[in-house]
TrEMBL record:
Belongs to the ALAD family. This is Delta-aminolevulinic acid dehydratase. The lineage of its organism: Bacteria, Bacillati, Actinomycetota, Actinomycetes, Kitasatosporales. It is an enzyme of class 4 (lyase). Its EC number is 4.2.1.24. Keywords: Heme biosynthesis, Lyase, Porphyrin biosynthesis. Pathway: Porphyrin-containing compound metabolism; protoporphyrin-IX biosynthesis; coproporphyrinogen-III from 5-aminolevulinate: step 1/4. Pfam families: ALAD (PF00490).
Length: 310
């Protein structure tokens, strides 16, 4: 009877798999802080994408991890057509065609030697408007490399409008924008720092949101809608279900939520210690995120959960 009357059901197509591609490695590199997740080689990434298709996952979100020597202050590797993320986008598109939505993280932090999501001004502060120019170029390069959807995650003001214009300018109205609308400055990004070999010292409080606030999320939402977002996202997911519910109520676009690295690793760590039932905990968190209003969920468990749902 519970099954019959359940209000919330997970489906493989709800799920999007975030994946890391690392430049210059011959074998996948395990991420210690995220047991079960690796930095992929080009080959292992193609395999992971094929597996995701097979399981019925609807998308893959790619993050590039360049070699240390390829990081600089401008994040040049992020706009180099031969940069690792662009190489991976082409690889994955060649592998999956249109059977899986190929998405790209559109942000400079993986490519800058200072680790910030934007370029810096003379005082070492993130320069919002100079960063927008870099994002415009990045969007075009990612579209050329095969991204169906770009995911701007840097939280610069005006980023959605600039990216929409840049894509339209090169005739790529078909590339959609998944806007990181409400992205909070969170401790739960911790394990991601290892995943992308981040160079960041300090924090992102000048451009990510304050966990204490919800009103600015609705303001960010209005701006993203006006600037041309096709889908909007709340991130992290678990500690921000109230934000997710408000955003989902306020908008008629698809709403996504990102169950981030720390949310993943907490469950894996507690399960490893035998303190929690792993699979139940995973399904409970995903069900909660969907119940709160997410149409789609980015989760490192996407393929595994989709396989179990089948
Ligand atoms: C920025 C970005 C981050 C994540 C996704 N995109 C890191 C940050 O904002 O500090 C975090 C994802 C996760 O923790 O799983 N490019």
């Amino acid at each position: 009877m519970r099954r019959m009357v359940a209000e919330t059901r997970l489906h493989p197509a709800d799920l999007i798999l975030p994946a890391f591609i690392r430049e210059g490695v011959g074998e996948p590199v395990p991420i210690a802080a995220m047991p079960g997740v690796v930095q992929h080689t080009r080959d292992s990434l193609k395999k992971a994408a094929a597996e995701a298709v097979e399981a019925g996952v609807s998308g893959i979100m790619l993050f590039g991890v360049p070699e240390d020597g390829n990081k600089d202050a401008q994040g040049t590797a992020g706009t180099d057509p031969e940069g690792i993320l662009q190489v991976a986008l082409r690889d994955v598109r060649a592998e999956v065609g249109d059977d899986l939505l190929v998405m790209s993280d559109l942000c400079l932090d993986e490519f800058t030697d200072h680790g910030h999501c934007g370029v810096l001004d003379a005082e070492g502060r993130v320069d919002n408007d100079a960063t927008l120019e870099r994002y415009a170029e990045m969007a075009q390069v990612q579209a050329d490399a095969g991204a169906h959807i770009v995911g701007p995650s840097g939280m610069m003001d005006g980023q959605i409008g600039v990216i929409r214009d840049a894509l339209d300018q090169i005739g790529r109205e078909d590339v959609a924008i998944l806007a990181y609308t409400a992205k909070y400055s969170s401790a739960f990004y911790g394990p991601f720092r290892e995943a992308v070999a981040s160079s960041l010292r300090g924090d992102r409080k000048t451009y990510q949101q304050d966990p204490a606030n919800w009103r600015e999320s609705l303001r960010e939402l209005e701006l993203d809608l006006a600037e041309g977002a096709d889908m909007v996202m709340v991130k992290p997911a678990g500690p921000y279900l109230d934000i997710l519910a408000r955003v989902a109520d306020a908008v008629d676009l698809p709403v996504a939520a990102y169950q981030i690295s720390g949310e993943y690793s907490m469950i894996e760590a507690a399960a490893e210690k035998g303190w929690i039932e792993r699979d139940r905990a995973i399904f409970e968190t995903l069900t909660g995120i969907k119940r709160a209003g997410a149409r789609n969920i980015l989760t490192y468990w996407a393929t595994e959960v989709a396989q179990k749902l089948r």
